[in-house]
């Protein structure tokens, strides 16, 4: 999607950095993605001149803005808007309502500062030059945490899910927001259960918006607190994550706020075992 002046005649607005490609080269991009390492690498690989992300609550180890430092090394101006000012996963909302919370040195050199409206920052970022440094290859990983049926996967991004993951448990590093508010973007496959990062929850509760959409599909889904696990890191979601919200399907299994991710996964697997043995899910999950 291309914007019109007064911003720039080469403004790209997308809901996810996964939608960036070479056709967006030399543009200024506003994306709904968190500002972590993988979205930053996608931005660099697409050769955008400058980019604005969502800070995803910043979170554990500042993972929500870690990509700004990566892009600084490539001399690409980058900024992030506060998650409380714009809906994560929504590029247009980011441009319209976002206020800058963090900038890297190249963006600062162009005049971008914390507290500035995203619209003003975009006008300044239009002065960025086309990047000359060759970016590293973007890599995103998936890891098998538990084998068997179902399998339990750690995915750094929900974008890695495909039809082969149907009936598995997916523990992702992705934020829990719908892309552009569209329910069909909640998850690409019919997983049994899914875990996301709440990205600080943020404006309009956007960081949790996948949960009710997945309820409609009968998929148990939860988020972990951005302060407990690194956004963009599926293994951190599993190893470090502490549940912050759950949908009705997950609540029925016994999921509750404050529960570690592995305990939720155990509940999912136990419920399947109970179904196979005909015992059902116990009414009292705390007993």
Entry keywords:
elongated, disordered N terminus, 11 strands, five-stranded mixed beta sheet, disordered C terminus, 287 residues, alpha/beta
Question: Can you give a write-up of this model?
Answer:
With 287 residues, the protein is an alpha/beta fold. The chain has 2 domains: 11-125, no CATH class; 142-277, no CATH class. 26% of the residues lie in helices and 19% in strands. The protein is built from 9 helices and 11 strands. The protein has helices at residues 37-46, 66-73, 91-97, 105-109, 118-125, 210-215, 234-240, 248-253, 261-277; strands at 11-14, 28-34, 50-54, 78-81, 100-103, 142-146, 152-155, 169-175, 193-197, 220-224, 243-246. The strands form 2 sheets. It has a 6-stranded mixed sheet. A 5-stranded mixed sheet has the order 1-2-3-4-5, with helices on both faces. Helix 1 (37-46) links the parallel strand 2 and strand 3. Helix 1 (37-46) runs parallel beside helix 2. The radius of gyration is 19 Å and the shape is elongated. It starts with 10 loop residues before the first strand and ends in a 10-residue tail after the last helix. Residues 1-5 and 281-287 have low confidence and may be disordered.
């Amino acid at each position: 999607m291309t914007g019109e002046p007064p911003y720039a005649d080469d403004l790209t607005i997308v809901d996810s950095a996964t939608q960036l490609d070479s056709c967006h080269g030399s543009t200024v991009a506003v994306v709904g993605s968190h500002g972590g390492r993988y979205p930053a690498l996608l931005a660099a690989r697409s050769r955008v001149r400058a980019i604005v992300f969502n800070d995803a609550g910043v979170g554990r180890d500042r993972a929500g803005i870690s990509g700004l430092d990566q892009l600084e090394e490539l001399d690409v101006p980058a900024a992030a808007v506060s998650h409380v000012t714009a809906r994560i996963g929504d590029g247009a909302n980011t441009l319209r309502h976002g206020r800058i919370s963090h900038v890297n040195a190249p963006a600062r050199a162009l005049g971008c500062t914390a507290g500035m409206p995203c619209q003003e920052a975009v006008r300044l970022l239009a002065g960025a030059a086309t990047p000359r440094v060759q970016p590293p290859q973007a890599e995103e990983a998936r890891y098998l945490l538990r084998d068997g049926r179902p399998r339990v996967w750690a995915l750094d991004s929900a974008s890695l899910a495909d039809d082969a993951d149907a009936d598995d448990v997916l523990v992702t590093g992705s934020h829990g927001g719908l892309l552009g508010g569209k329910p069909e973007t909640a998850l690409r496959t019919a997983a049994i259960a899914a875990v996301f990062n709440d990205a600080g929850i943020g404006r309009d509760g956007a960081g949790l918006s996948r949960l009710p959409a997945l309820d409609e599909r009968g998929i148990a889904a939860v988020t972990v607190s951005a302060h407990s696990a690194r956004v963009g890191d599926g293994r951190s979601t599993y190893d470090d994550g502490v549940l912050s919200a759950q949908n009705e399907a997950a609540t029925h299994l016994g999921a509750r706020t404050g529960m570690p991710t592995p305990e939720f996964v155990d509940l999912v697997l136990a419920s399947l075992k109970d179904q196979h043995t005909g015992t059902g899910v116990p009414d009292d999950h705390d007993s």
